[in-house]
Specification:
alpha/beta, 17% strand
Length: 393
């Protein structure tokens, strides 16, 4: 979307959301006391609006979940508890829950929302317009473009980066964190990525720097790894100290030898009491089409591509806040030379300009698109599945 009234694009919608929130008692209920619900609960607790869980499971109603109250939907209706309801059930169960709520006279997009709709379109606006806090779902610092694998379809183009490539300096990594957290009040997940971040020689120092200064602004502090490199003990100690989540991309379907590495890595992480998530091995990547797509470069063709995509993969590099980390990295690593101005300059944005920051987060910009949209399948990439981690031999 192209800016036409910067800083005021969402005023009407924001006022509507705030008024509805106040009318409903300034509360949010999570319908679904499972893993997804637990993932979002800390956000609402931080702002004092978490009212509890609603769940159809009687066992959860009787015992609660992690010291949180769990009520039935019947109790919610009988006591007229109000509040927004965010559905966090498995995708297969969401239609039946929607029907359950609709039969009780509640309206979707007014009284209840799926968690994707609520967290993408409602909560960021509510956070700024009601709480005066700029919330970001996810952002990353790409510490190195070097990788221990050579995946031919890498969405960052890291296969084209040599082993002698220059990593981000520690000073730049610190500047990136400072610049980001000077503007951001709360983030769901802040990630250190690569390439392969365990190749970054100053990883211990940047973990300490970010952990000491900004850990309270994050729900999750994470490192994403392909699992090929065992972290040193000093890294493990710091991950435990600063409550760092290790996200392991699982490429064992293509690279069988990784199965044993993942077993060993899990053992080490568990021994050191470090949280981790190992992805499934039977998944595919999406082909973004960077090597083949050319849309002609006209703004009227690229704006719809960008608006449909709404990627959540932000990147901070120094004072530059990029909407799409892949657009920046692919352009650099594969030599496109595009998007040199496709970022928000945090040095030119005041901390109090939260509505401008929110609008950028919601997809507004001066052009309304990114240059790399010209060479990307965008949201339609889901229609082009490719096996993950095929190597260049």
């Amino acid at each position: 979307m192209k800016w036409s009234d910067k800083g005021h694009e969402l005023d009407g919608y924001g006022e509507k959301i705030v008024q509805s929130f106040r009318d409903k008692g300034e509360k949010i209920y999570i319908f679904g006391a499972g893993l997804i619900g637990e993932e979002y609960r800390p956000l609402f607790e931080r702002q004092g609006c978490f009212a509890g869980y609603i769940d159809n499971d009687r066992r959860k109603q009787e015992s609660g979940v992690n010291r949180a109250c769990v009520i039935s939907f019947e109790e919610y209706c009988n006591k007229k508890m109000g509040g927004f309801i965010m559905i966090t059930a498995d995708e297969k169960n969401i239609p039946s829950i929607k029907e359950q709520l609709s039969r009780a006279g509640l309206k979707e997009q007014t009284d209840f929302y799926t968690y994707t709709d609520f967290m993408n379109s409602v909560y960021p606006v509510l956070s700024v317009y009601f709480y005066d806090q700029f919330y970001v779902r996810q952002a990353q610092i790409c510490l190195t473009e070097r990788c221990s694998l050579k995946c031919r379809d890498c969405a960052h183009g890291c296969y084209a980066v040599g082993a002698d490539s220059q990593d981000m300096s520690l000073e730049m990594a610190k500047e990136s964190a400072d610049s980001f957290f000077d503007k951001v009040d709360l983030i769901k997940e802040f990630v250190l990525i690569g390439g392969e971040p365990f190749l970054y020689r100053d990883l211990d120092q940047i973990i300490v720097y970010i952990g000491e200064k900004y850990r309270k602004k994050m729900i999750n502090f994470a490192i994403t790894t392909n699992g090929t490199i065992m972290p040193e003990q000093k890294i493990l100690d710091l991950c435990r100290k600063y409550d760092v989540l290790i996200r392991i991309s699982n490429y064992s379907a293509e690279l069988k030898y990784l199965e044993k590495k993942y077993v060993k890595l899990k053992e080490v992480l568990e021994k050191n009491k470090i949280m981790y998530i190992l992805g499934g091995s039977d998944y595919y990547w999406m082909d973004y089409g960077f090597k083949t797509v050319d849309r002609g470069g006209k703004a009227e063709d690229l704006i719809p591509v960008f608006d449909k995509c709404r990627t959540s993969c932000r990147e901070i590099r120094g004072n530059r806040y990029y909407y799409c980390v892949m657009a920046r990295s692919v352009s650099d690593n594969l030599g496109f030379g595009l998007g040199e101005d496709d970022y928000l300059d945090f040095n030119k944005i005041k901390k109090e300009d939260k509505k401008v920051l929110l609008e950028f987060e919601m997809g507004y910009s001066d052009k309304g698109y990114l240059d790399m949209c010209n060479h990307c399948n965008g949201a339609d990439a889901v229609n082009y599945p490719i096996p993950a981690a095929k190597q260049i031999h």
